[in-house]
Design goal:
By secondary structure, the protein is of the alpha/beta class. The protein is built from 17 helices and 18 strands.
Length: 487
């Protein structure tokens, strides 16, 4: 099945594809007015592995490194018998703790993970066709924290990337149009044929559209959305997309979930407004390789289940347990209810020879209408940190991933409602009394952290360890503000 034909049959009004998604500034960049706001210019950062490969081996690899048998074995008998830190999970939070504690304090760590790779949900790889892809969905790095930006550039080279999303949204006549998401002036013009050409006119349009709650304050997500964007954008862009994400209509969710809906009055079609927005030149996995693999103080065992090894009494002696998994799993023996998560299922398809080499116009195209079950389609070939083979035009096909929300599978997104918040607080009370254990990161905090938030949280916990001897947060998870969540 040809990718272009699939689009044309269903969305006759849409001219697709044309790629890679670019502007006059370059591939993966916004228009000049908005691209100049990105503080990342050119290639910045360090990649020690690439430097070593280039100078010593004369050849470099764009795919993740092959890990040695001991790391992959899951066998703790060959691991150190005593470490300062036993770290459960080889994702962002655990990696930052291990790296900082080694580099500055000389502490030893054993990292264990039940998966067969490092990097947690950030893990990406190069598939058999030569396309760089993400195993757990698209990851877009952006941050306002200069400390985080300075930190990540120690472990990778980075290139600027202004993430922009399109959506196939029905216009006033029910014909699907490809428009910017979040909605901009262009979206309103295309969908409703409104004469909106300035920020003042866009603000006036919002003011006319918005519906204030009768009680004064929105009591649920639907009232919140109507108070932010009005009924027409709510119905076309947000209502059914939310249902597909959460398996609940906005009227069944907390108002807080949809009070964050972005209301753009400008022509800025960037998804994020942060000062630093970039992609790691050789993929996210390279960051973890540079952080962990050459450090003699850090040992890793993959395919290794903490709870199983604990039951078998195979764990080494350790000074502190750093737990980055689900907090309810840690306390499963107590028989308490489980916290609720939403997961994602990825339906991948390699399209052999799409016209023009691309399946769709942008890396991410949202599908907010109820007539399709998936929420969006991601086409990895658009990103500027693709492999040299892709950028040189030697890969005629393309890889797409349709994303479906699910109640089952890997835990991605905490479900925001009063029952889950109350239950988490009970777990948090137990965790606060747990001697010799530090609960770190997204799953342990029941909080969706963006990548930069997860890194900053771990860095601040490390600061506390240096200052007070305790590996604990400097601020509550809620103090970081909302993460991106579903994109």
């Amino acid at each position: 099945r040809c990718g272009l034909r699939f689009i044309t049959l269903n969305f006759a009004s849409v001219t697709m594809p044309a790629g890679p998604f670019a502007s006059s500034v370059g591939v993966g960049r916004a228009e000049p007015e908005w691209a100049k706001l990105n503080k990342v210019t050119g290639v910045v950062g360090k990649d020690a592995i690439f430097k070593f490969q280039s100078s010593m081996l004369g050849a470099t690899s764009e795919a993740p490194l092959k890990l040695d048998d001991a790391i992959m074995s899951g066998d703790l008998s060959s691991a150190p018998k005593s470490v300062d830190l036993l770290i459960v999970g080889a994702g962002l939070s655990g990696a930052v703790i291990a790296e900082r504690c080694s580099k500055e304090l000389g502490m030893t760590s054993l990292m264990i993970d039940k998966r067969d790779h490092i990097g947690g949900n950030c893990y990406d790889y190069v598939d058999e066709h030569g396309i760089r892809a993400s195993k757990y969905g698209a990851h877009l790095f952006h941050t306002q924290f200069e400390r985080v930006w300075n930190y990540v550039t120690e472990f990778s080279e980075w290139i600027p990337f202004d993430h922009r999303v399109k959506g196939l949204v029905p216009d006033k006549d029910g014909v699907k149009k490809l428009v910017p998401i979040p909605p901009t002036q262009e979206s309103v013009r295309e969908l409703f044929q409104e004469k909106v050409g300035s920020e003042e006119e866009m603000q006036a349009w919002y003011d006319k559209e918005r519906v204030k709650p009768t009680s004064g304050e929105p009591s649920n997500g639907e009232e919140a959305a109507l108070s932010r964007v009005g009924p027409r954008l709510y119905e076309r862009v947000f209502k059914h997309y939310t249902k597909k994400q959460w398996d609940k209509y906005p009227s069944e969710l907390d108002a807080s979930v949809l009070l964050r809906l972005p209301c753009r009055t400008s022509t800025d079609d960037r998804y994020f407004g942060d000062a630093w927005q970039a992609l790691p030149l050789r993929g996210y996995t390279r960051i973890f390789e540079n952080m962990l693999l050459s450090d003699p103080n850090i040992s890793i065992r993959l395919n290794c289940d903490y709870f199983k090894e604990k039951d078998l009494k195979n764990l080494p002696k350790y000074g502190l347990l750093v737990y980055t998994g689900q907090i309810d799993s840690y306390y499963a023996a107590l028989g308490m209810p489980k916290l609720e998560y939403r997961s994602l299922r990825f339906e991948e398809e390699y399209v052999e020879k799409p016209e023009g080499g691309f399946f769709q116009e942008a890396m991410v195209v949202n599908h907010p209408s109820p007539d399709v079950a998936f929420t969006r389609i991601v086409e990895y070939k658009h990103v500027p940190n693709q492999t040299t083979e892709v950028k040189d035009g030697r890969v005629p096909g393309t890889l797409i991933a349709r994303e479906y929300s699910s109640a089952d599978g890997e835990p991605y997104y905490p479900v925001p409602n009063p029952d889950n918040r109350t239950l988490y607080e009970k777990y948090a009370e137990l965790a606060a009394k747990e001697e010799g254990v530090a609960f770190v990161g997204r799953l342990a905090s029941y909080k969706y952290f963006n990548m930069d938030q997860a890194i900053l949280n771990a860095l601040e916990m490390y600061d506390n360890l240096k200052e007070t001897g305790k590996l604990e947060p400097k601020r509550s998870p809620a103090a970081f503000g909302p993460g991106d969540g579903y994109k």
